[in-house]
Amino acid sequence: MPFGPAVAPFGRAGTRPLTPGPVRTRVDDHALLRATLDGPGDGAVLVVDGGGSTHCALIGDVIAGLAVANGWAGVVVNGVVRDSVALAALPLGLEPLGTNPRRSSRTGAGEVDGTVTFGGVDLAPGEILYSDEDGIVVVAR
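Structure (tokenized):
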């Protein structure tokens, strides 16, 4: 369920020192994700492993607005989002599993810059992502 301009995030998964790499959040917790998107994106795509949970949204219009303001090109979310009408109007490529209006918690648990695995694919910092309406392709760095 892609959102955003041309629905196609293309870019390098974040790599330090410029941008953070993949984020693994605690299931149904958006605090670490929000803190990461509140930092400079430099045109990178943030990969977020929310454990595949569809119980609560990890991104809404406020967090997506932070991503746009900080120069992120897109976000791939192994989880769900909310505020879909507002998200579709933002210049941010967004690839979630779906939508749910329920807000998530904010404890901040999780990790940044590690390799995450979902959909049978390992995603590490620096890998290149291509996306369209049919899915995502990951190219090793």
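The first strand starts at residue 11 and ends at 12. Residues 61-69 form the longest helix (9 residues).
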